[in-house]
Amino acid sequence: MPEILFGNLAREYQQIREAVDPVVARVLERGWFILGPEVEAFEQAFCQYVGSNYCVSAASGTEALALALMAYDIGSGDEVLTVSHTAVPTATAISMTGAKPVFVDIDTASCLMDVTQLEAVLTSRTRAIIPVHLYGQCVDMAQLLEIAHRHSIPVIEDCAQAHGAKYRSRKAGTMGQIGCFSFYPSKNLGAYGDGGALVTSDPELAQKLRMLRNYGQHRRYEHEIKGINSRLDDLQAAILHAKLEFLDMWNERRRQIASLYHEGLQDLPVITPQEKRDCYHVYHLYVLQSEERDDLQTFLAEQGVRTLIHYPIPVHLQKAYADLGYTRGAFPVTEGVADNILSLPMYPQLRDDEISQVIDEVRRFFS
Fold first, then answer.
1. What keywords does the record list, in alphabetical order (predicted)?
2. Looking at 100, 166, 171, 187, which residue is catalytic?
3. Any residues with CB less than 8 A from the CB of 148 and at least 6 apart, and which?
């Protein structure tokens, strides 16, 4: 029986090579690779896609988050609220500025931030809130934005897994002051290398972000503020621009695959992901929960079905963040979810027969 990969970017390339190859050749022939016309064109197209006024590209999603925090002069002694159930780069970005990540627990069903816990950890040192739109679905932004507005705290959305996701018809990244995206190759919209972007409707923030990503320059060799080097190159920008036209189609296919998984697994002793009210889920990942997770993963691997865990160790229990002082039991929902979650194969080029095979093998495990 053929192996079913967790992801397959080679299959994606075969689908879109006629769109991608010419733009790669165009960049190589032009010979302009940094902050050139391809970057400008992609930034314009992406901000139009998400419904924002400005887009500032960056070298990665991690650095996009760090730049957003830097734009608010957040640093040592400051606190930034987010979740422990996320990819470590969310916390990495906070640490890059010298600020301290402060975590809140999540909701069991959605695996997203439990917004009702925010005010309990707000202090005079809280300088930003980073809601993580994990797995392709948005956090409850209405309640979060009300809390943030009441306390005059900026909201920086982590949209690394939410390209095209919506909350009450607004796309991820457009509800807070800044939205941050990753274009890591496996994302719903991925480059063929690292990349990231920030979107905002604030012209002053956009201008500051453009300087911060390029050594603090307003004009060449005129450095108005201290910045870093975090620039999306023209080759990746051209590839992303070409792939952008496929994003909605790919997201719809992800939703179709999720629907097939829902239907095929609904009567099993697992918790399947559900689309929340007011949300449009783009299923960057299809994450089920099972108390027999480890045995299930081992069984599926033996049958040639590749799965992953997103994420097995919460940030607050990572050795790198031991200095924060959290111990096991601090976030019981996060810790319980981390013990039970399993991500099934999910990418737009996954065939229906492969989806059926995954479902059959999961069912065989529980039979």
1. Pyridoxal phosphate
2. 187
3. 129, 154, 155, 176
Supply 141's token pair: 């932004």
What are the φ and ψ backbone dihedral angles of 156, each rounded to 5 degrees? -115, 110
Smallest Cα–Cα separation from 200: which of 191, 185, 188, 212? 212
- Together in a domain, 208 and 253: no
Q: Are residues 31 and 50 in the same domain?
A: yes
Torsion, Cα of 96, 98, 101, 102 (10° steps): -170
* 2 has a pLDDT exceeding 90: no
Q: Which domain holds residue 93?
A: 9-104+112-244
Distances (CA, A) of 285 to 29, 115, 183, 220, 255: 37, 22, 15, 42, 10
Instruction: Provide the CB-side half-sphere exposure for 277 (13 A, CA).
Output: 1
Residue 135 falls inside a structural domain: yes
Residue 67 clears pLDDT 90, i.e. is over it: yes
Are both 129 and 229 inside the same structural domain? yes
302 contact partners, CB below 8 Å, separation of at least 6: none
Report if residue 2 sits inside a domain.
no
* Residue 1 domain flag: no
- The number of domains in the chain is 2
Note the pLDDT tens digit of each residue in 124-175: 999 999 999 999 999 999 999 999 999 999 999 999 999 999 999 999 999 9
Query: What angle (nearest 5°) sits at the alpha carbon of residue 198, between those of residues 85 and 205?
Result: 120
Q: Please tell me the pTM assigned to this model.
A: 0.98
**Cα(114)–Cα(144) distance, integer angstroms:** 9
SS3 sequence of 284-332 = CCEEEECCCHHHHHHHHHHCCECCECCCCCCHHHCHHHHHHCCCCCCCH
Mean of the per-residue pLDDT values of the chain: 98
Q: Is 187 a catalytic residue?
A: yes
Which is it for strands 178-182 and 156-158: parallel, antiparallel or unpaired? parallel
